[in-house]
Amino acid sequence: MKTLKVALLGCGNVGSHVARILLDDADELAARTGARLELVGIAVRSPDAPRDVQLPRGLFTTDAEELVRGADVVIELMGGLEPAGTLIRQAIAGGAAVVSGNKALLARQLPELSALADTAGLQLSYEAAVAGAIPILRLIRDSLSGDRVTKVMGIVNGTTNYILDAMDSTGAQFADALAEAQRLGYAEADPTADIEGLDAAAKAAILATLSFHTPFDLGDVHCEGITGVTAADVAAARDAGMVIKLLAIAERVEGSGGEEGICVRVHPTLLSRDHPLAAVHGAFNAVFIEAENAGELMFYGQGAGGRPTASAILGDVVSAARRVVVGGRGRTETTTGNVRAVPIDDIQTSYSIGLEAKDETGVLAAIARIFTEHGVSIEAMRQTTHPADAGQTDSATLRFITHTGRESALAATVEDVRRLPVVREITSVLRVEGN
Amino acid sequence: MKTLKVALLGCGNVGSHVARILLDDADELAARTGARLELVGIAVRSPDAPRDVQLPRGLFTTDAEELVRGADVVIELMGGLEPAGTLIRQAIAGGAAVVSGNKALLARQLPELSALADTAGLQLSYEAAVAGAIPILRLIRDSLSGDRVTKVMGIVNGTTNYILDAMDSTGAQFADALAEAQRLGYAEADPTADIEGLDAAAKAAILATLSFHTPFDLGDVHCEGITGVTAADVAAARDAGMVIKLLAIAERVEGSGGEEGICVRVHPTLLSRDHPLAAVHGAFNAVFIEAENAGELMFYGQGAGGRPTASAILGDVVSAARRVVVGGRGRTETTTGNVRAVPIDDIQTSYSIGLEAKDETGVLAAIARIFTEHGVSIEAMRQTTHPADAGQTDSATLRFITHTGRESALAATVEDVRRLPVVREITSVLRVEGN
């Protein structure tokens, strides 16, 4: 039986589980692959740093470039743009198949790295970069290759789903739910990348690239985080039979010129509680896909964690190694589509708008007039009048849900409503999906 | 650009959609595949029969053997064992990649057909055979190839899920729900294969074969249908916060000799309403997987229907055609495991037992003694006393849920309880999963 040399770059939580499985399950992996997968080394900055999993000290090296040389399969789990990007290029130049879980890098350089691997006839796989253990990329790339995806909506960030789910089930404010998530290890000390939607945006770019066979990068993604979501928003959603989720969305839309394009976006979204994505709790991830022939599909699983993510990495490693064993070129991406990215202004969506207004006659008429001027129609309105706080006149809380309209018209409506003298504050603007 | 000859065998609901997509989306499929997919003919018994989709008359032929000769990809959608099996063998002998949706055939001959394709270096794909549009086979085969599956539980028959879901939401009896399903086209005029669990059993054998890398066939599957499920069972499940689903289950278990094996089974099952599978409504399918590293995964989508199933077929066709384009051997199955099939007697499970007993003192004690004799402990009991029907003495309805125990002990307990003079009738025995 052939032996393939596997080089591991990075040994954090995921990497240490990958190493453990390669060592502990070597016989089973060999039987499935048709070749022995020999872990030849692990490149890290500090070979003596403490790790979750006990691994042979002799495997560690600080010389990643040397390790990559001569490897058959390189697993890149360093994260960050450099030196990860350079090492992946060196691995491809040296003839190795590459498996990466580095979403930050891939969201920026996937088309370029895919082209390099393709030219060399090598496989580049990155299942773990989106939705952890859920094999969503393979599904989109292979299983739906004979279909046409029309829309992808994903809960792809476990931290924000944990926070929003906790706000929904306990009524907590955002700051308290975030603090609890940090205490329990679901959010990092610096949670910016998660709560501002940046992590989800990187995954959205990768999902869109595969789903629509066209390169998209982070710059194409409209991104809003969840820091503005309040306990009042969550309570109002609940009253309306809905739930707020941070969704990564990529969909075919008609651009302002009438031609087809793809809008890629991340924002907090109101969803009916009947929608399959509404039932995704805690730190779980899920991706909901609409395809022309397949109809509705949903895939659910753990989005993070050392063991689940290691499972996705190993799936890629076995697949790449089998390809080496049976011969032939690596699987290539098809970026044959040439649809363009469409800005969010051009999409059709509906808004939920919450505001505080003076409680006096004519307020609703004034607001409704502005909706009409922008051609936006109101599907539902709910008003709660409450006694003023000390020193204020009476105030009314209003929540509108619009019918579907163009984002630019909806946004302009909100701006004009905000300028009305009778309106004290726009407290919330959320898009609604899944109706 | 290369042109690949595609032969289609069978043109029912799925086949006609496959043909339509091959013809209508030819350019897009060519871009993704790297070769043009030319539909060279459609073998049917009656070329002039009316079809759902308008297709060129010149494509139809009654000579399937001639059509298979010289094809690069053969799509078999005839169903049944023969002539489908012979034609697939001829296709492989002639050097064609084969895509089949024929679960009846595959449940009996998958290991043999896989071996033939493997020896010839050709791809044999059959995504559409299990769970329609859900690409579950590719997931198990490829994405989880670096992990170890411990349990698979699937709702893989849309007809029975439609019936059970209707019974749950309307309180209908089985016969009425079946009649309604037939009226709406969700059940066939002869519903035997669905309601007796045989269709699900065929899919269970295929799921088990891929999940555990070991050949299993229909004879290894313990099979119970849903004809015995009553409105009273469904109502009692609802009272207990549960729902009844027909599940196809394959799991690693310890056999009676202490060695590991796989138990494959289909039966109506009580599931907590919190379980992800409980939220699968109507004719939708879903497969829930537990793997050592990936943890819990679930995949949801349409299980039947011409367009969704055609999407799965086309995914296989594009994948097989890409392989022909880039060269190298077809993907091979790994049936390297050698775990044996374990009879259901050996599994650990828990029972829900419903019975009618005489309403007199000492009944519960008599029943409890039998449980104790078999080493089975009771987790919950609920008693409903009701006035007797005319001519009967008073009767009591009892429902027990047991703790986990060996199936053989649970079954023996039921038999001994049945023989008690105070017990009028065992009305229901259901296994409980997902606790």
From TrEMBL, chains A, B:
Keyword Secreted: no
Keyword rRNA-binding among record annotations: no
UniProt xrefs under SUPFAM superfamilies: ACT-like, Glyceraldehyde-3-phosphate dehydrogenase-like, C-terminal domain, NAD(P)-binding Rossmann-fold domains
Keywords tagged on the record: Amino-acid biosynthesis, Methionine biosynthesis, NADP, Oxidoreductase, Sodium, Threonine biosynthesis
Record's catalysed reaction(s): L-homoserine + NAD(+) = L-aspartate 4-semialdehyde + NADH + H(+); L-homoserine + NADP(+) = L-aspartate 4-semialdehyde + NADPH + H(+)
Coiled coil: none
CDD domains: ACT_HSDH-Hom
Pathway(s) it belongs to: Amino-acid biosynthesis; L-methionine biosynthesis via de novo pathway; L-homoserine from L-aspartate: step 3/3; Amino-acid biosynthesis; L-threonine biosynthesis; L-threonine from L-aspartate: step 3/5
Enzyme category, top tier: oxidoreductase
InterPro entries documented for this protein: ACT-like_dom_sf, ACT_dom, Asp/hSer_DH_NAD-bd, HDH, HDH_cat, HDH_CS, NAD(P)-bd_dom_sf
Residue intervals of the ACT domain: 352-431
TM helices/strands, residue ranges: none
Domain of life: Bacteria
Cross-referenced PROSITE patterns: ACT, HOMOSER_DHGENASE
Family statement: Belongs to the homoserine dehydrogenase family.
Function: Catalyzes the conversion of L-aspartate-beta-semialdehyde (L-Asa) to L-homoserine (L-Hse), the third step in the biosynthesis of threonine and methionine from aspartate.
Protein name, per record: Homoserine dehydrogenase
Taxonomic source organism: Arthrobacter halodurans
